[in-house]
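Quick start: read one record
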Amino acid sequence: MEDLLQALIAAVAIAGMLLYFLTNRIHAPSTWFFQDTWLDKYIPLVPYFIIAYVCLYPYILITIVLMWDTPLSTQFFTCFSIAAWTAALMWYVAPAGIVRHRRLGPDFFSQMIVWLYEHDQENNTIPSSHVFYSLICSYFLMLAYPHVQLLFVVVGILISISTVFVKQHHLADILGGIVWAAGSIAIASYLVG
């Protein structure tokens, strides 16, 4: 029965994650697009960070596999469900985005960013799903596998900061993602813990 509950919660989490693609099609009115702050303007575009950025997807898959048979799995999937569904609601109710007006070079990493820009809308920026998913993964992996927790801290930080270095997010979006992760972890801990 517990395996069935875990599979059901995992399915709810995955369905919530897929809502990103639906809400990403909602074009935010121009007033909702956040402009770079004075601090964002000092953050350079660093094409190599596209590698960390795209690593979120295998990181989530690896986390699901590693967490599946742990005592924390139900709490992990509950947390993912809370984060995914509430973020989708936020993106729908208060759509926000980033305006991309940057020229990119011909190198491989820059062209990966160009491909990303062409296939990902400028919407769904706050909270940053890259930030809250990577931090949630890192948090639960650190609890489940404390002997390699430094690795999970580094991966979570690299994925999070990659969002501003590839100009997919503003600093405010990162802060929103951190708050979203912390809130989702707290609610899931209260409900399941």
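The chain has one domain: 45-97+106-192.
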